[in-house]
Prior knowledge:
The protein is an alpha/beta fold. The protein has one domain: 3-Layer(aba) Sandwich (Rossmann fold). The chain is built from six helices and twelve strands. The chain has helices at residues 10-20, 26-44, 80-89, 136-147, 162-171, 199-204; strands spanning 4-6, 50-56, 61-67, 70-76, 94-102, 109-115, 124-128, 131-132, 152-160, 177-182, 185-186, 192-193. Helix 2 crosses helix 3 (80-89). The structure holds uracil. Uracil (URA) is lined by residues 78, 131, 133, 190-192, 195, 198-200.
Amino acid sequence: xxxxxxxxxxxxxxxxxxxxxxxxxxxxxxxxxxxxxxxxxxxxxxxxxxxxxxxxxxxxxxxxxxxxxxxxxxxxxxxxxxxxxxxxxxxxxxxxxxxxxxxxxxxxxxxxxxxxxxxxxxxxxxxxxxxxxxxxxxxxxxxxxxxxxxxxxxxxxxxxxxxxxxxxxxxxxxxxxxxxxxxxxxxxxxxxxxxxxxxxxxxxxxx
Length: 207
Ligand code: URA
């Protein structure tokens, strides 16, 4: 789908299979989310601007590169499971949080918490939200971040549904979306099929 980049890699596929399986323990689910998120982060950071720096090797002076700082925004609560992966690759990233809860009856997002770093307007911002289902919470998060000054936004998810991708693209036509999988679609409760169930519940043990 336009605007969506699905990362294909055997190791990512294995992590995603762990995430999907009901045989996966909570600890293994957390580990697989961390592993998959790190690979997605690696790919999402691929075109991050770098600045040249001078470096002295033991033998001579040469030039190296340092990536620009970034901001990571976790869409609560399942997005928390993806933050550490970004921080492993970009340890000085600023991290913000947006609480977007899905109302299970209307399937519409409800905003209940916000903590946004000042770097929002001056850095590339990676919004992490593992399940792009209806697209309601991701779209609401992107809308809120644009209103707060963010200019360069990317959305990183584990599993996307076509409905969610379309909804996000309608709200924010130029935002790149990076995912580990594009699944078949949504069921009548708004769950992604085949999906992996409720990512937040499986991550935090509230299922
Ligand atoms: N949120 C989830 O965690 N899983 C889905 O399938 C849809 C929304």
